[in-house]
Amino acid sequence: MKVIVKVRLKSGILDPQGKAVNNALHHLGFEQVRDVRIGKYIEMEVEETDTAKVRELVEAACNKLLANPVIEDYEYEIIGESA
Amino acid sequence: MKYAIIVFPGSNCDYDMYHAITGVMGEQAEFVWHREGNLNPFDVVVLPGGFSYGDYLRAGAIARFSNIMGEVVRFAKKGKPVLGICNGFQILTESGLLPGALLRNENLRFVCRHVYIRTENAETRFTSVLEKGQVLNIPVAHGEGNYFISREGYQELEEHQQIVFRYSNSRGEIIREANPNGSIGNIAGVINREGNVLGMMPHPERAMENLLGSEDGRAIFQSLAI
């Protein structure tokens, strides 16, 4: 199954990268833009058809490696069976 | 004293560290490649600076799962000293040996210059030759040295004297202008509660000889030698 994981800095933690992009957008005239925050988008293929097992695996992978729980939150979606 | 210098793909301060320990301090040191496993012959483990695994995902995130880190954790659990410099500090927080995390510098710049740090705790085995309040001139070189910890975590650090160094000016004043990366509380280095694992962003191994601007970094190795 295909899984998409999104990892982002917890709210309240300063994201200097988002801030710099926010400023750059303002310089380009996109003045309505506010609160840019940048995260990570991770796609992966999991060789497993049981959705419950996929969830278990993905959550373990996120907690162990893909996200750092001290500073980041994650969410994921399972796209469906692989072609 | 026999030091193990752990080498990951992407470590780049390993030879500076080797020179500092052997050439300047006259102690023994050996490189230990991340796939190798035995730290028993060593008295101190050093995780040097660099960009282990290209800093992919997060700085230190992948190095933390290399073979040798299991050994480093066992070494630390025995109460033996582990010193993480810069990327080594990042690996120690990722591995849970030290609390907190290192975020991207507040101003987004890679900061590479000499800074001053004030000794907050001179009772540790890494700082025992120093006086509390003593100011050291030591360079930093990092893009992700912005120490973060939750409010409760910060209080615990303070309660247990775990903040070992803070960025200061040359007079030892802890001011915002002296903070090169936005670290909470100007934190430059922290120690675990047991007092045997120290992580710091500044590079003492680059401050060993006056010819190179400072020899204040020697204090860390002199303390370990006691």
What this model shows, in words?
Chain A has about 80 residues and is an alpha+beta fold. The model of chain A has no long low-confidence stretch (mean pLDDT about 95). Chain A has a three-stranded antiparallel β-sheet with strand order 2-1-3, covered by helices on one side. In chain A, about 35% of the residues lie in helices and about 30% in strands. The N and C termini of chain A lie close together (about 10 Å). Chain B is an alpha/beta fold and about 230 residues long. Chain B has five helices and eleven strands; from the N terminus they run βαββαβαββββαβββα. A nine-stranded mixed β-sheet of chain B has the order 2-1-3-4-11-10-9-6-7, with helices on both faces. In chain B, strands 5-8 form a two-stranded antiparallel ribbon. In chain B, β1, α1 and β2 form a beta-alpha-beta unit. The interface between A and B is medium-sized, with 12 and 20 residues.
Please describe the topology of this protein.
The complex is a heterodimer of chains A (83) and B (226).
Chain A: E1 2-9, H1 16-27, E2 40-45, H2 51-66, E3 72-80
Antiparallel strand pairs in A: 1-2, 1-3
Chain B: E1 2-7, H1 14-24, E2 28-33, E3 44-47, H2 67-77, E4 82-85, H3 87-94, E5 101-103, E6 111-119, E7 135-142, E8 146-148, H4 151-159, E9 163-168, E10 187-191, E11 197-200, H5 218-225
Parallel strand pairs in B: 1-2, 1-3, 3-4, 4-11
Antiparallel strand pairs in B: 5-8, 6-7, 6-9, 9-10, 10-11
